[in-house]
């Protein structure tokens, strides 16, 4: 389900990064418009930056097709927390892949990265994501008003946290 990235994944990752509506839903900053000289090379460089600064895995469907990715970024090693992000292709949503990826990322954060807490932000109008995190036991800790500007609208973001059960706490 979650696995390390391989070169064959770059076409799908480049596609996800080029989807401006999806990037805005994720509260990311899409690249400026215009064709990339080599979208797959740019995607590979982007993934390397994420791997160097945190943890990054692709979400693979049972048949092996890439459904999206999950990452833990801005890891604070001393306080042992990081920021989670999940991105799924439109066609992969609603099939339980987000729930499975979330559980896998939580386990990796706890067992492999020795984190005791994950945090995340979700755009307030992203009802499917809000439901996913609530059902998975994430605690809503606040609202960040007008947190994200998509170029036409400012969106509130909901802030969540989850303490990782079984984490080796000092």
Keywords, separated by commas or semicolons:
single chain, 170 residues, alpha+beta, Aminopeptidase, 7 strands
Fold topology:
Layout: E1 2-3, H1 10-18, H2 20-25, H3 39-53, E2 55-60, E3 66-76, E4 81-88, H4 97-111, E5 117-123, H5 127-135, E6 139-149, E7 154-163
Parallel strand pairs: 4-5
Antiparallel strand pairs: 1-2, 2-3, 3-4, 5-7, 6-7
Helix pairs in contact: 1-3
Describe the structure.
This protein has 170 residues and is α+β, with helices and mostly antiparallel strands. Helices cover 32% and strands 32% of the residues. The protein is globular, with a radius of gyration of 16 Å. The two termini are 31 Å apart.
**Low-confidence runs (pLDDT<50, min 5 residues)?**
none
Number of strands: 7
Chain oligomer state: single chain
CATH superfamily: Gcn5-related N-acetyltransferase (GNAT)
Summarize the amount of helix as a percent range.
25-40%
CATH topology: Aminopeptidase
Strand order of the largest sheet: 1-2-3-4-5-7-6
CATH architecture: 3-Layer(aba) Sandwich
């Amino acid at each position: 389900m979650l696995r390390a990235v391989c070169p064959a994944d770059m076409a799908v990752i480049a596609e996800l990064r080029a989807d401006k509506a999806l990037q805005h839903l994720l509260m990311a900053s899409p690249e400026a418009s215009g064709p990339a000289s080599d979208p797959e090379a740019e995607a590979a460089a982007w993934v390397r930056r994420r791997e160097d600064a945190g943890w990054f895995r692709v979400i693979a469907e049972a048949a092996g097709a890439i459904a999206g990715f999950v990452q833990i970024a801005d890891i604070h090693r001393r306080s042992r927390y990081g920021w989670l992000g999940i991105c799924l292709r439109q066609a992969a949503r609603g099939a339980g892949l987000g729930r499975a990826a979330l559980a896998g990322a939580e386990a990796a954060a706890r067992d492999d990265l020795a984190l005791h807490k994950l945090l995340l932000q979700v755009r307030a109008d992203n009802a499917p994501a809000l439901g996913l995190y609530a059902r998975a036991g994430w605690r809503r800790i606040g609202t960040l008003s007008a947190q994200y500007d998509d170029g036409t609208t400012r969106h509130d973001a909901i802030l969540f946290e989850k303490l990782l059960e079984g984490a080796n706490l000092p």
